[in-house]
Amino acid sequence: MDLIHEKRVELKEQRASSQQDLTTCLIKIRNEDGSAVLSGEEIVDNCILVMLAGHDTSSILLTFLVKHLAEDPSVHAAVVNEEIAKSKAYGELLTWDDLAKMKYTWRVAMETLRVAPPIFCNFRTIVKDFEYGGYLIPKEWQIIWAACMTHMDETIFPDPSKFDPTRFEQQNPAPPYSLVAFGGGPRMCPGN
Ligand code: HEM
């Protein structure tokens, strides 16, 4: 709250720009009459959401990725032998362009998201009655969609327990809404 107060003062005195960072963007969202859309508490909540949603998920993915590299020497070797790994000096940082060239490593990350989705399930509220598999799912029920179960469906991913990054060599390795580590629909992860 102190930080938000400071930023409000800086914005007022034109020492900060509205596009400077997440906090100033949120402070500057205005109603038509010029009043603030978000209260200080709502801004804090949104900042915490983005930090938690972005931090824990990414670190869980990296943890499982390292686990799979440790368990599978052939996958480990292929990651280490990526062209980009060889062209970098020890400690040299990767750029955004470098990431696009790390095709095999990317597939390992995708396969890790499939076998161990960091958010393995989430909630939805039913907005209208519908039938699925012979069951009526009534409006207003709260349901759980479980990424980990869809990702282990052998009709979608053959031999689902096998850790196989080559699945992602295909452009569309799964039908829509079946690779759901980042969710789906209008509330899909913006960090995707
Ligand atoms: C490997 C990394 C990540 C995974 C697996 C992941 C996964 C997810 C999932 C499953 C959801 C729920 C989607 C739904 O209900 O349809 C979600 C929501 C969200 N994620 Fe991520 N996420 C990741 C990284 C990030 C990052 C880096 C950020 C931001 C910097 C972020 C910000 C958010 C936010 C703000 C929401 C809520 C969206 C909303 O409710 O409209 N996530 N994420």
From TrEMBL:
What compartments host this protein? Membrane
UniProt entry keywords in alphabetical sequence: Heme, Iron, Membrane, Metal-binding, Monooxygenase, Oxidoreductase, Transmembrane, Transmembrane helix
**Highest taxon of the source?**
Eukaryota
User: Cellular component per GO?
Assistant: membrane
SUPFAM superfamilies cross-referenced by the UniProt entry = Cytochrome P450 (SSF48264)
Transmembrane listed as a keyword: yes
Any single Pfam family the record assigns to this protein: p450
User: What InterPro entries has UniProt attached to this entry?
Assistant: Cyt_P450 (IPR001128), Cyt_P450_B (IPR002397), Cyt_P450_CS (IPR017972), Cyt_P450_sf (IPR036396)
Topologically, how does it sit relative to the membrane?
Single-pass membrane protein
Q: Name one GO molecular function term.
A: metal ion binding
Give the similarity note: Belongs to the cytochrome P450 family.
**Protein name listed in UniProt:** Cytochrome P450
The organism is Ilex paraguariensis (yerba mate)
The lineage is: Eukaryota, Viridiplantae, Streptophyta, Embryophyta, Tracheophyta
